[in-house]
């Protein structure tokens, strides 16, 4: 198996690439899916969070088979394990987590948890297949570290003079590099698009939602990937969780999956349905994966299908926050995936993007006019789609006129 490590996210500079170079990401599909059973189980565990929208805090165990796998994961989360400053920061997070568990919840932690030989030892203990006291406390400690690290990353962003445009550009560079490497690995990436919602589009979306706060818009920055087949969808998801999106920062309850089934996962990864069911704690022989915790979008067509999830992707911003090294913050983005056949079906009938926008705008007009929404039957809301439109290019917004004519509203009879 290729044991090369994913690159540490580079300190944020416009145009700067990976600190370790793109060549370190090269691997073939056989290595990606896992030559060993432990790697396949780790892939299944990550896919569970992506497709079901569950939280890493609820995982009963982790899936690291050796120290190299732990190192890969830490680098994916933004830590350079060759840098003493980064290791010191991990030590600080560990100390804060143990203080929280002992002071707030009055746990008595084993000595191996309070004073591990190395941070990697904590991860390997949490990955033990035997549910011992040591394993449980290792998981609890890492879950707490995960939350505290996320809080610190958000606080760093609020306290640092950095523009949203800089963050988006840095993230875009990483995503573009990942797409190139997926193609080099043999994944059938047919189309790729990146976009940021316009102010007009955001206004329409918020006006159509009952919960119309801008803080609840998760897909202002989004990436859409079209691949050749369902098998390519699985390989793409595995690649993303290995080299771009840490599974622990998949946003809970915001995932949609209307394409992949347990049979697809078992076939591609070369495992039995029973194994899939064991990892996901479901009856994989009967359970189809078209379920998630995300609320279906009422404006999407009945036949619309895709895979989408929201993630907070770690970024290093050491160049603008040298006092905070390792300066790791997060950029939230939506990733949409679909295979070619499903993409074609999504543009037929009521699943078409134009029909989606038509239904959405009808709702906005109804709310603006303070009427009970009773649209034409052809615009009736339907369920089964993602939080937003399929990701196709939106028509250009009309220029704002100097004098805006009011829309006529029929008086009540």
Describe the 3D structure.
The chain has 413 residues and is α+β, with helices and mostly antiparallel strands. The chain has one domain (22-345): Beta Polymerase, domain 2. The protein contains 14 helices and 5 strands. The chain has helices at 29-33, 37-52, 67-76, 84-104, 111-114, 119-126, 133-158, 164-185, 199-208, 230-243, 262-269, 273-280, 340-345, 353-368, and strands spanning 189-196, 221-227, 256-257, 307-316, 328-339. The protein has a 5-stranded mixed sheet. α2 packs across α12 (273-280), α4 (84-104) crosses α7 and α11 packs across α12 (273-280). The protein is globular. Mean pLDDT is 79; it is low at 1-26, 283-294, 379-395 and 397-413.
Keyword list:
single chain; 413 residues; alpha+beta; Beta Polymerase, domain 2; 5 strands; 42% helix; disordered N terminus; disordered C terminus
CATH fourth-tier homologous superfamily: Beta Polymerase, domain 2
Query: Which geometry do the CA atoms define?
Result: globular
- Order of strands, main sheet, comes to 1-2-5-4-3
By CATH reckoning, the class would read Alpha Beta
Determine the mean pLDDT. Answer: 79
Distance from N terminus to C terminus (CA atoms, Å) equals 75 Å
Radius of gyration: 23 Å
- Number of strand segments: 5
Oligomer: single chain
């Amino acid at each position: 198996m290729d044991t090369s490590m994913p690159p540490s996210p580079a300190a944020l500079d416009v145009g700067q690439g990976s600190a370790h170079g793109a060549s370190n990401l090269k691997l073939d599909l056989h290595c990606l899916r896992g030559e060993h059973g432990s790697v396949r189980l780790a892939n299944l565990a990550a896919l569970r969070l992506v497709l079901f929208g569950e939280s890493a805090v609820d995982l009963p165990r982790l899936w690291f088979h050796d120290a190299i796998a732990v190192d890969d994961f830490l680098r994916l989360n933004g830590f350079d394990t060759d840098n003493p400053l980064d290791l010191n920061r991990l030590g600080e997070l560990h100390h804060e987590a143990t203080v929280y568990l002992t002071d707030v919840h009055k746990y008595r932690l084993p000595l191996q948890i309070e004073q591990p030989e190395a941070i990697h030892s904590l991860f390997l203990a949490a990955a033990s297949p035997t549910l011992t006291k040591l394993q449980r406390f290792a998981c609890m400690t890492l879950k707490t570290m995960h939350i505290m690290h996320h809080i610190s990353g958000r606080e760093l962003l609020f306290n640092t003079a950095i523009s949203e445009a800089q963050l988006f550009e840095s993230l875009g560079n990483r995503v573009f590099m990942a797409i190139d490497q997926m193609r080099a690995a043999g994944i059938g990436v047919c189309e790729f698009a990146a976009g940021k919602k316009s102010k007009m589009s955001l206004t329409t979306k918020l006006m159509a939602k009952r919960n119309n706060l801008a803080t609840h818009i998760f897909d202002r920055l989004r990436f859409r990937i079209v691949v050749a087949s369902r098998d390519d969808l699985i390989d793409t998801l595995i690649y993303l969780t290995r080299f771009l999106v840490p599974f622990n920062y998949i946003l809970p309850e915001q995932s949609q999956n209307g394409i992949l089934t347990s049979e697809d996962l078992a076939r591609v990864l070369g495992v039995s349905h029973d194994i899939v069911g064991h990892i996901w704690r479901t009856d994989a022989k009967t359970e189809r994966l078209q379920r998630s915790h995300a609320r279906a979008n009422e404006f999407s067509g009945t036949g619309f299908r895709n895979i989408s999830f929201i993630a907070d992707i770690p970024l290093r911003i050491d160049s603008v926050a040298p006092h905070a090294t390792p300066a790791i913050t997060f950029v939230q983005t939506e990733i949409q995936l679909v295979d070619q056949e499903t993409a074609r079906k999504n543009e037929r009938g009521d699943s078409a993007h134009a029909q989606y926008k038509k239904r959405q705008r009808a709702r906005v007009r109804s709310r603006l006019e303070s009427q009970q929404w009773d649209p034409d039957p052809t615009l009736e809301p339907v369920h089964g789609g993602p939080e937003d439109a399929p990701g196709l290019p939106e028509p250009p917004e009309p220029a704002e006129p100097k004098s805006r004519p009011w829309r006529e509203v029929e008086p009540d009879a």
